[in-house]
From TrEMBL, chains A, B:
Family matches, as SUPFAM superfamilies: Winged helix' DNA-binding domain
Organism phylogeny: Bacteria, Pseudomonadati, Pseudomonadota, Alphaproteobacteria, Acetobacterales
Keywords recorded for this protein, A-Z: DNA-binding, Transcription, Transcription regulation
Matches recorded under InterPro entries: HTH_HxlR, WH-like_DNA-bd_sf, WH_DNA-bd_sf
Domain called HTH hxlR-type: residue spans: 15-114
Organism per entry: Gluconobacter vitians
A Pfam entry, by short name: HxlR
Superkingdom per UniProt: Bacteria
Coiled-coil regions listed in the entry: none
PANTHER family: TRANSCRIPTIONAL REGULATOR (PTHR33204:SF29), TRANSCRIPTIONAL REGULATOR, MARR FAMILY (PTHR33204)
Protein name stated in the entry: Helix-turn-helix transcriptional regulator
DNA sequence: GCCATTAGTGTCAGGAATGATACCATGCCG
DNA sequence: CGGCATGGTATCATTCCTGACACTAATGGC
């Protein structure tokens, strides 16, 4: 998560970009959202499988923040063992074009960047 | 910047999202790119005016990383006082739809999130 | 000679975000 | 009774970001 959470948006036009970024800055949030777009409904454990590099704590954090921002809903079934379902809210669903753009770009160009970096590291090595 | 920079992309389809995110994770990078889309060419000091919350050091960092990722070019004019120009590379320009999506969403929905958060903080206060 | 300019770099401190690990509740199964 | 399953917490360590400050280099103006 970005370290500074702004609360006022009446500054420059870039502020809305900044504000949007704060929803994503969470390092894993875009991934979480991406998977929710893919699967509609996910349980905590399913996120863990899809995002193996995220610690349980971070995952909890990020999900709670997404929930606090009204992008994701959390439904708890009071059973044992626990059962919790996450899904996108209506607001969350509006992010689809953004996630889609990220994915599209990544599919097309991520490899270019990899090459770029590899070329440089090869030079230094 | 995200703390883990992956170098391999042959994992799940979400990896390209992840990879794209790493270019943005830099907390300020998307803003930097946004301003470059607006202004085409920017000098270091101009970034500082547009991003008053970024420290000089962070700005340098982020710009260097963007340069290393091949998204931004840095042109130094060997004069005194120093003159340095930043602009998007061809690869950088391909990010336009992504930045645009961020901006569009922010313009439309950032206020919704603000309201959401405000409502919650009002409850707790 | 002294100050200002620009795009930084270097260093130190403090705080925030992240990671690793251990632990919990509860009910079912054997 | 012991262990497993799920969705977490709690605690501590590490790593990253920020802030404040000092310092640089070459030229122009006072």
């Amino acid at each position: 998560m970005p370290r500074t959470r702004h609360t006022i948006l009446d500054c420059s036009p870039s502020c809305t970009v900044e504000a949007t970024l704060e929803l994503f800055g969470g390092k894993w949030k875009a991934l979480i959202l991406y998977h929710l777009f893919e699967d509609q409904v996910l349980r905590f454990g399913e996120f863990r499988h899809r995002l193996p590099n995220v610690t349980q704590r971070m995952l909890t954090n990020q999900l709670r923040e997404l929930e606090a921002d009204g992008l994701v809903s959390r439904t708890v079934f009071p059973v044992v063992p626990p059962h919790v379902e996450y899904r996108l809210t209506e607001l969350g669903k509006t992010l689809k074009p953004v996630i889609q753009a990220l994915k599209t770009w990544g599919d097309q160009y991520a490899h270019s960047v990899e090459r770029e970096k590899k070329a440089k590291s090869d030079q230094t090595v």
